[in-house]
Prior knowledge:
By secondary structure, the chain is mainly alpha-helical. The chain has helices at residues 2-10, 12-31, 41-44, 47-51, 54-66, 82-94, 99-105, 109-140, 152-180, 185-205, 210-235, 271-287, 294-304, 307-328, 331-340, 352-387, 390-394, 397-420; strands at residues 237-244, 247-249, 252-254, 258-264, 343-344.
Amino acid sequence: MLNGLKNAFRIEELRGKILFTIAMLVLYRIGAHVPVPGIPFQGMAGLLGATGDSVASGAMALLNLFSGGALSYVSVFSLGIMPYITSSIILQMLQSVVPSLNALAREGEVGQRKITQYTRYLTLGLGLLNSIGYLFLFKSFGITFTGAGAPEIIFDIMIVGTLLAGAMLIMWIGELITQRGIGNGMSLIIFANIMAGLPQAIFSSVSGDVMSIVITAVIFLVIFLVIPLIVFIERGQRRIPVQYAKRVVGRRIMGGQSTYLPIKVNTAGVVPIIFASAILYLPAQLAVFFPGVGWVQAAASALASGWLNWVLNVVLIVFFAYFYTSMVFNPQETADNLKKQGGFIPGVRPGKATADYIKNALNKITLPSAIFMALIAIVPSIVFSFTGNQLIQAFGGTSVLIMVGVVLDTISKVESQLKMYDYDGFFK
């Protein structure tokens, strides 16, 4: 591992990408602590702990988790990355039902640029709605806006504009990381948010008595035991044997070799976890528009935590695992490519029969991996509901899955860059 890290910094281009990614994440974390102008910072500090409303606490905690604690300090990045993620989900789901978007997705780089542009416009609209909702939320806590006799509407516009600008800046940072850095910018920002809350969660878990120290040690022990299992599932493959027929090309005989078609056990990666969290995050976003309506807050809190959240988490993770897998892996296209190249699966006819065989194999491995992810995501939430340990909430199953998945994806990208320069990577 250390040797691979040294090799990464020996390559000027790769070193620049790594340092650029780190710089963007540092910039993002600095912005998460810059307060919105016009709102008294000290009066809003610890906003979540000051509410005293157990009904709304679940929804508020979920909002704060995905903003990396920015919401609790009412920073310019209070909206977090979720407006962009929600927009991405909507556009990806629309590709399955809107023929014109589906055609754009198949046009390669040009089509993807158009879809990215639509995602930005939708992010702008969702960010504006969320900014107005957060303004209502702040006012519900009796916050008085400071100023030299200026009308309150001026401060309202300034707060909404600042929050919206922060959301668009986060989107820009994420896209810059994806284009010029290493890894997926959206995933790395979520990773940074999770890591930002870890130190405070550890301090709150270790309250000073021996029992709390023992519980914290047990939590970390369980996490360290679960991480290798997550890595095993993430790196696991279903290898379908493929045989290539012999053919004569000029004076050479091509083909005749045996190989395999690798299918990842967890083809969708951490995307189902992120998408499911974004969907369950949406009611909490809507609830900020109605801070004084009890049943709306109760519904948002029920979806943010509790048995309903657990059930919906499992259902959504399994659904998005199949949905995203169907988007990134097309059995029919794979079968057609095999047929064109003279390849076939032993005992399976080329064409539709091969596509059905691959699809069946894909479905069989997707279900257990999706259920595994769902269990890892909800079991810590169930334990937290009984123990109340903040470390479990901040560093629970969803957080561990996202962090491990993001780290593996980033390492794989660094690995591919190292292989281009004939360096040994992280995986030997």
